[in-house]
Model the fold of this input.
Amino acid sequence: MDNSARRTFLRITIIVAALLITAAVLIWVAIKAFQPLPGRDLTLAAGPPGSAYAQYAERYREVMAREGVRLHLVPTYGAVENLARLQDARGGVMAGFVQSGTTTEQASPALVSLGTVFYEPMWMFCRCSSLPELFSGPRKPRVSTGADGSATRPLALKILALNGLEASQLELSAEVPEEAARRLAAGEIDAAMMLSAWDAPVVQKLLVAPGITLLSWRRADAYVARDPKMSKLVLPEGVVDLAANRPPADVLLIASKASLVVRRNLHPALQYLLLRAAMEVHAPPAIFQRAGEFPAPEVIDLPLSEDAARIYKAGPSILQRTLPFWLAELVQRLLIIVLPLAGILYPLWSVLLKTYRWQAQTRVTRLYAELRLIERGSRTEPDAAARAQLLDRLQALERRALELRVPRAFSETLFNLRSHIRNLRVRLESSTA
Done:
């Protein structure tokens, strides 16, 4: 392959590569630019009325309403039903609270977590002072273990089984926390187990209810050792009512953590808004948590959302911090279009254009160099044979100059080259005559 063919091949290769890069960038820009903007409606599985889930969901709704997003709350029996609704792709529920230990990544591939958001202690309220007293009566203890669809029921049955208690030894019932509290206060049941946050209204009511005792999980460390997804908490003596010293001693509790779970395809802007609401609602200190402990980027059952992980690591972007979420999303969409064009395509084609101009300049310069050699040879008063050879070289050079195509910016240079060639040819021909 001669030099000319090699240069042509190289030039074609560079142009093809530039076109492929340009096509790839434009396709990427088109995909990103034409993704749908976030909607203004979002549905969240909240939990039973009066529960901590429902209470927190209401606060989320207030936070998101400030950004113009309508958060629709769906009442459920609890975490198990929340999970089922999230797994239903056609159900419309895109977010919800799910208790740790309820699912796995393999069982719920369409779901991701935005982090853990609060502790859910397992409370056992009883019309007795201890578990032995509960089982000392002549009949089977009547115990509420939470409604079907709640996370309380499977965990309560698991705890009872770990203590060697069979379902046949108890008279079990399934109620939502508010109904269980009413029946316990009325003496219709002997004990109620419920998985809920400290500030749930039903928990606060039972903590001060006369004749009802909060039982301590004396072997809390053993439960946590058996199930590392659980946590040990301590309710300090007198924290409920210092004057009445309720509770009369430290109460050991076992607790799971609630995660804020979303469908994997939820728009990143709405994931950010949910996480921001979680930060506002759960970040302040509380009875069982330090300030800033929640929300936390913990991976327990489900993987952390990539968008949430980015926010935990680097914080919200400057656009998210300073602009309304819809405007931040629009500006970000424009940047997605502008930055690749300005940062990749413009420099790429600028370099190609400069390279093309440099090659054109080089071709003209090369012809000028050859012209100088011919002109230098004509100054030595060559004989007839030498002049004929110079004329042949000059005519070949003139043909190449006439066939040369350069950008318009080099037209004047090429015209001057051709004029110099013509003048030298005329001079050589006149000297020959």
About this structure: The first strand starts at residue 41 and ends at 47. The CA atoms of residues 216 and 259 lie 25 Å apart.
